[in-house]
Amino acid sequence: MRKISYCEALNEAMAQEMEGDSSVFVYGIGVPDHKRVFGSTAGLVEKFGPERCFDTPLCEDSMTGFGLGAAINGMRPIHVHIRVDFLLLAMNQLANMVSSYRYVSGGKLNVPMVIRGVIGRGWGQGFQHSKSMYSVFAHIPGLKVVLPTTPRDAKGLLISAIRDNNPVIFIEHRWLYWQEDEVPEEPFTIPLGEANFLHEGSDITVVATSWMNVEALKAAEILSRRGVSVEIVDPRTIAPLNDNLIISSVEKTGYCIVADNDWLHCGFSAEVAARVSEKCFGKLRQPVYRIGFASTPCPTVRNLENEFYPNAITIIRAIEKMLGLEPTDLSKEEFYSHEKRFKGPF
Amino acid sequence: MDTRELNLELYRKLYLARRAEEKIREHYGENEMKTPMHMSMGEEAIAVGVCHALKAEDQVFGTYRSHAIYLAKTLNTDDFFAEMYGKDIALLKGKGGSMHMCAPDHGFMGTSAIVASAIPVAVGASFANRKRGNGKLVAVFFGDGAIDEGAFWESLNIACLMKLPVLFICEDNGLAVHTPVSKRRGYASITNIVAQFSCSVLEDNATDAEVIYKLTHKAIDLIKTTGMPCFMHLRYYRYLEHVGVNEDFDAGYRAREEFEEWYRRDPVKLQRDKVLHRFGVKEDDVISIEREIDNQIDRSILLAKQAPFAECSELYEGVFGS
Fold first, then answer.
1. How many domains, chain B?
2. Is residue B313 part of a domain?
3. Residues of B in contact with A166 (CB under 8 A)
4. Chain A residues touching B150 at Cβ < 8 A
């Protein structure tokens, strides 16, 4: 099968859905500009014209309400935000309008809209260009929240999100944009609410989200060389959360670490820890352990930023501690470095 | 429709809106309508005049103060009172209440109790209508408090930029809850500012529904001929407290004399006098129209009171669609 990047997968999903359904349109700040939201909206304005792919004034909240209005009148809007942080300007529409509109229309008005938000990181993104925030959205009944990890997920979940008759917040990590993998050429769907085993194992369960899956996979690969079998569960949809795979994995392994691409306090990791405690209490051999961002704003300078983010090493050390293993020698291991990938400027 | 018939129709709707709220005042003390009432009394000419000028399939969005707009657009007192009483027979089954009425089948597309939040939704609805070529016009009602919110200016900008056929209706009662315009505006004239946008601007302080009706037709014509949105700035006086069914002239923030001045040209009284004296309708005929509406409202209230509440499982219905 041909391989494409996560970014190309997003692009292909939108292009194919716009091709197949004239009610789909894509809009947002910078969507048709020369950079095309890191290339994810490339070719759309050329193919579908400025009525179906357009730039907007800088008013995230009202353009979200705009999407809601279009959705209740039969359109399928895709609203794109180049940073999740900008989506916070739309919290009124999200929390007060979009999430509840179907409920208080007596079920008469569906809200089939997709809101794409990109999580930034690295090269000095700083505290206003790097937030994840998905647990805040997932807290609100009526919103679906999806975090695709692989290129295949990016395409299959985005097509599902576009076809879904409910508002879906679709959170993409910027570093995942370069990931390449096999992705079917024809349109296909991955159901929202279906978790995925990214790596099967039997000794310990790591529930990871978004970019942290890449770190968890690296940790699993290193630990497998010393015979530790790590199972990685990627929930992919965090609202509504189907925890079946998480629970069945922890029942099997008896150990659970949650590696979340976010702050810990009141976050998605806390939800997973609570559910695992509620549903697998008797099977757990250690308390659930959580890994996430430092409880600070994200700093700009490199050394502090490195301290802020957990990584594969954080996961390896946590697994070793939980399983009572001596620390692995990591001095010869090579880990993902954004420095090698990207030199700036933005 | 001849002018006499038009004025009778307008009177029917004005009387319906007024009497429905008078009945709310009568029954509210029974504590069966457990929903915060933001009463329309005083604004009926705007609600009725605008909605009567719209086609049945046109769409309106409102605010938490939308009783009169809802009734003028839908004429559906059964669903209105069923929702006030929160009963199973209402479309929303009590999930919305007075502040969140919705009747999409009648083009009443919803309201928001967060000031200005329905305005961008109306703009997006208008975009979809244009895209689908269904010819439906969107009218969005909001108070003068909404003008303070960024969402109003953002929405106006979007509608003008995208040349969308939106009718913006500012119902200006001079108060945001209890705060007067003088405490909220760093400028003199809202219409002068809005006129700088690429849209038409109309204004009036009429309490005559026929005047508002004709002005709305003018607005619709302007939207059709210019292809741009229209902003209508219409003044009225809120008769009752911000929320609740009582007067509050003893609260100190406004004087009863203001009310009395406006009440001299009360929209319902004015229209009744007009049909009697200008159009020569017999008082008995007017009374018979009124009794018919009274009976309709009484039946709706009885129906609502007798209806059951929804099963508790209803709580979980409708969050997501399939």
1. 1
2. no
3. 320-321
4. 59, 61-62
Does the active-site annotation cover A129? yes
Contact B124 A70 (CB under 8 A): yes
What three-state secondary structure class fits A79? strand
Chain A residues closer than 8 Å to B140 by CB: none
- What domains are defined for chain A? 3-182 (3.40.50.970), 196-323 (3.40.50.920)
Domain encompassing residue B109:
3-307
Task: Extract the tokens encoding B188.
Answer: 């003199």
Close Cβ partners of A62 (under 8 Å, ≥ 6 residues apart): A93, B119, B120, B123, B150, B151, B154, B155, B158
Alpha carbon of A221: minimum distance to chain B alpha carbons (Å): 39
A vs B: CB pairs below 8 A: 144
- Digits of tens for pLDDT over chain A (346 positions)? 999 999 999 999 999 999 999 999 999 999 999 999 999 999 999 999 999 999 999 999 999 999 999 999 999 999 999 999 999 999 999 999 999 999 999 999 999 999 999 999 988 899 999 999 999 999 999 999 999 999 999 999 999 999 999 999 999 999 999 999 999 999 999 999 999 999 999 999 999 999 999 999 999 999 999 999 999 999 999 999 999 999 999 999 999 999 999 999 999 999 999 999 999 999 999 999 999 999 999 999 999 999 999 999 999 999 999 999 999 999 999 998 887 777 666 5
Distances (CA, A) of A156 to A9, A290, B238: 9, 29, 53
Mutate to test the interface with B, among A73, A100, A115, A163 (most CBs of B within 10 A): A73
ipTM of the shown complex: 0.97
- Tell me the one-letter amino acid at B125: A
Query: B124, A68: Cβ pair inside 8 Å?
Result: yes
Which is nearest to A151 in space by CA: A316, A4, A256? A4
Which of B92, B120, B128 is nearest residue A106 as measured by Cβ atoms? B92
Helix (H) or strand (E) holding A213: helix A212-224
Active-site hit among A8, A12, A17, A60: A60
- State pTM to two decimals: 0.97
Which chain A residues touch B88 with a CB distance below 8 Å?
Answer: none
The distance of A65 to chain B (nearest Cα, Å) reads: 5
Contact across the interface for B318 and A63, Cβ inside 8 Å: no
A68 in Cβ contact with B127 (< 8 Å)? no
CATH code: domain of residue B84: 3.40.50.970
User: How close does chain A come to B298, measured CA to CA in Å?
Assistant: 25
For residue B229, give how far its alpha carbon lies from the nearest alpha carbon of chain A (Å): 15
**Is position A60 annotated as part of the catalytic site?**
yes
**Residue of A69, A71, A105 lying closest to B120 (CB–CB):** A69
Q: Is B319 a member of any domain?
A: no
Q: B322 lies in a domain?
A: no
A65 with B110: Cβ contact below 8 A: no
